[in-house]
Design goal:
Layout: H1 15-21, E1 33-43, E2 46-54, E3 59-65, E4 74-79, H2 82-95, E5 113-120, E6 123-130, H3 135-140
Antiparallel strand pairs: 1-2, 1-5, 2-3, 3-4, 5-6
Length: 141
């Protein structure tokens, strides 16, 4: 989804600022942190999806493709602060998602798929499941 953009790339940031953007909690060693989420399906309007990723350097990338009424793909990139990255990391850690296992989750189907990938220090998870639209879908799984 994050292929060649139709718009110019964002300005490059200096190495010093890039170092400040790595998600690191106070008093801890610098560790890699990355999050990617995708939800999509292939239907009568083609491949429609929403995807975002937070990269270790603080770059947030977003893509949204809907062919409804011939819409074009939306792609955005920006840099977020270390505070935002730390809060995202804290949310991931507090959720304990890194301890989960997707073996019993519903497999992707014709309705669609969701993917969640997280790298947090030495831990790396990559989950795939069907597209879940409501709490009743979660309870039924």
């Amino acid at each position: 989804a994050f292929g060649k953009a139709a718009h110019p790339p964002p300005p490059q940031i200096g190495a010093e600022l890039q170092q400040k953007l790595v998600a690191k909690m106070p008093g801890e060693e610098e560790e890699e942190f990355y999050v990617r989420y995708y939800v999509g399906h292939k239907g009568k309007f083609g491949h429609e999806f929403l995807e975002f990723e937070f990269r270790p350097d603080g770059r947030l990338r977003y893509a949204n493709s809907s062919n409804y009424k011939n819409d074009v793909m939306i792609r955005k990139e920006m840099h977020v602060t270390q505070a935002v990255m730390c809060e995202l990391r804290k949310t991931i850690e507090d959720s304990e998602i890194l301890k989960e296992d997707d073996n019993h989750w519903p497999a992707p189907d014709r309705v669609g798929r969701q993917e969640l990938e997280v790298v947090c220090g030495k831990e790396h998870i990559s989950f795939t499941t069907s597209k879940i639209g409501s709490l009743s879908d979660v309870m039924a799984s």
